[in-house]
Amino acid sequence: MGSASTGPIHFGRPRVYRLKFIGAIPPDFFVEKFMRLSLVSACLFGIATVCAAQSGAYWNYSGHTGPLVWGKLDPAYRACSGGHQQSPLDIRGARLNKTLPPLEFHYIAGPMTVENTGRGIIARIDPGSTMVADGVTYNLVELDFHHPSEHAVKGKLSDMEADLVHRTDDGKTAIVAVRLNQDRGFPNALLATLFDHLPAASKTTKLTDMLSAGGLLPADRGYWTYTGSDLTPPCSESVQWYVFENDVSMSRTQLQQFTNLYKMNTRPLQDPHGRKIQANE
Predict the structure, then answer these.
(1) With 80 as the cut, is the pLDDT of residue 22 above it?
(2) Do residues 41 and 167 both lie within one domain?
(3) pTM (predicted TM-score)
(4) Given CB 3.0 to 4.6 Å as the disulfide criterion, which of 67, 140, 176, 247 pairs with 129?
């Protein structure tokens, strides 16, 4: 058997590896890369936030997902059944308050995008139209249509209601309710364009005509006002409502165009819980 070698062990010379870069690296190279990664992360977070905000239990206007059970469908909808500032209301017993200023409308004509949500019709408004109410400037964002009307006046509903939804830059909401009633001889010019292009469920139509929501405003703009809520889940409260005292005419054909799609898309009248309704005239 051979014996193990006891001679000295020799190691090779250590090698030094050098990284070779082609061209000089700018001093802000890594900063730029970090900022790009941060921007991507922020965008992904924003998308996730929007998706979360749009999520929620399915609801509708009838059956086991109808208004009577909205508050039970999702914890986020609790206000629909437990809130004390819910809308719509039956307008009666309003108190005259002559200090209430008139509403100022600064609407401009432009394109609209009409959406059939599967629960109703919404016309999205391009930016630029505003309303001033009690010294606060609101941006007009959309028109929502309901059959029959959401609000009643002394127990009587109108044929339809158009709700002009406004929001401030810091998130406050004001909604102007226009009651629409059928008059065979007086079609509404704005509805003539909108309702001639109503899309199928879950579809949208872009109208490039120069359209103004001012076509839904009555000549006499006296109003009733109260603090209420959004009309659909999550039924968020602290919404300032302005319901015009005078209605606007629409034709029988226009009414039928809407009811062919939606026989009923309104919420039952809500308990006022002691809220006061005021009138400016």
Answers:
(1) no
(2) no
(3) 0.81
(4) 140
